[in-house]
Design goal:
With 121 residues, this protein is mostly beta strands. It is 7% helix and 47% strand. The chain is built from two helices and ten strands. The strands form two sheets. Strands 2-10-9-4-5-6 form a six-stranded mixed beta sheet, with no helix packed on it. Strands 1-3-8-7 form a four-stranded antiparallel beta sheet. Strand 5 (44-51) and strand 6 (56-59) form a beta hairpin. The longest helix has 4 residues, at 25-28.
Length: 121
C-alpha cells in the first residue's frame, strides 16, 4: 500500500495517543490528506483533513479542540495527536489522500490496514 498507519492501542478515557501515517513520497505530496475512522458496524467518519498547499487543517466537530493533525514533510509522515480520548473515539483509523467525498466511500483495497484505537474504562 501507499500508507502505513500505526500508533493505536487500548487506552482509558482521558488518555492520549499519537497516530502516525507513513506515506510514499507521491502520496504525502497529495493536495489533501485525511484521517477517517470506522467504528464497529459503522461507516467511515471523517476526523480531520490537511490541505497541503496552504497547510490549512480542518476538523470534524466531535474532535475539535482535542485532536491535532500535523505533517512532517521530511519524513513523509502525517500525525494525529489525540488528547482527552472518549469511548466514542473507538474505531479503526485510516489516513487517506484525496477529496473527502471520495474517501468516505471507502475503505478501498489499496488503503493501509489502519490502526485500531480502543477507548475503554
Amino acid at each position: 500500500g501507499q500508507v502505513v498507519e500505526s500508533g493505536g492501542g487500548l487506552v482509558r478515557p482521558g488518555d492520549s495517543l499519537r497516530l502516525s501515517c507513513a506515506a510514499s513520497v507521491f502520496t504525502a505530496s497529495r493536495h489533501i490528506m485525511n484521517w477517517v475512522r470506522q467504528a464497529p458496524g459503522e461507516g467511515l467518519e471523517w476526523v480531520p483533513s490537511i490541505e497541503t498547499s496552504q497547510e490549512v487543517t480542518t476538523y470534524a466537530d466531535p474532535v475539535k479542540g482535542r485532536f491535532t493533525m500535523t505533517r512532517d514533510n521530511a519524513k513523509n509522515t502525517i500525525y494525529l495527536q489525540m488528547n482527552s480520548l472518549k469511548p466514542d473515539d473507538t474505531g479503526v483509523y485510516y489516513c487517506a489522500d484525496g477529496p473527502l467525498n471520495v474517501v468516505l466511500l471507502g475503505p478501498y483495497d489499496y488503503w493501509g490496514q489502519g490502526t485500531q484505537v480502543t477507548v475503554s474504562s
